[in-house]
């Protein structure tokens, strides 16, 4: 496994924060989707990226109630 440059890592992080898909980020930066997924999971663990997808139909209060 080769190390990628700090510029590419910063590009990956900024594109992931702008809610781009793994495939689009990989094509734009020039790395594999697996590499992008690795950086996405590290962002999730640090809590610096929002989950994409359909918003919940019930409030957090109702989730906690059930």
Automatic annotation (TrEMBL):
Q: Which InterPro entries match?
A: Resolvase_HTH_dom
Task: Specify the Resolvase HTH domain's residue ranges.
Answer: 3-39
One annotated GO molecular function is: DNA strand exchange activity
Question: What top-level branch of life does the organism fall under?
Answer: Eukaryota
Entry protein name: Resolvase HTH domain-containing protein
The record lists the organism as Rhizopus delemar
């Amino acid at each position: 496994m080769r190390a990628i440059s700090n510029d590419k890592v910063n590009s990956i992080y900024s594109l992931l924060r702008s809610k781009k898909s793994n495939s689009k980020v990989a094509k734009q930066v020039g790395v594999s989707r697996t590499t992008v997924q690795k950086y996405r999971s590290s962002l999730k663990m640090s809590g610096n990226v929002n989950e994409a997808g359909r918003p919940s139909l019930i409030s957090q209060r109702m989730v906690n109630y059930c």
